[in-house]
Fold:
Amino acid sequence: MASSNEVLWGDEPDEHDYPAAADYLALLATAEQISEIVAALKQAPIVRKKAKDLLRASCLQLLPVDNPHVSRDLKKIKKGQRLSPILAVRGDLNTGVAMQIADGYHRVCASYWTDENTDIPVRIVPATK
Structure:
């Protein structure tokens, strides 16, 4: 069992993470774009990025530890349970578009609260045109 300061990650995103990502992306993109992005996410290799950098690139606020979803993930970390990797859409430095955490924002925050330098497995793909 892991110590309370070690975040364990699964090898692959949970299958329900893809529809959750699509649901979020529906606020930002067309159905056709979402289909392309989700298909690409399913094929993208896993890379590892630090919790602090994922938050910075996404321009998202660190959620508090008492956020119900962050709290749930912190409990999983403490119990040594594996978290599902993050699904993300790459931002664009030239236009100032932030990276989108399509699924896993709460897991990133819980990981940050545990150790901001945690290497988080991420599937990241470019936005479609």
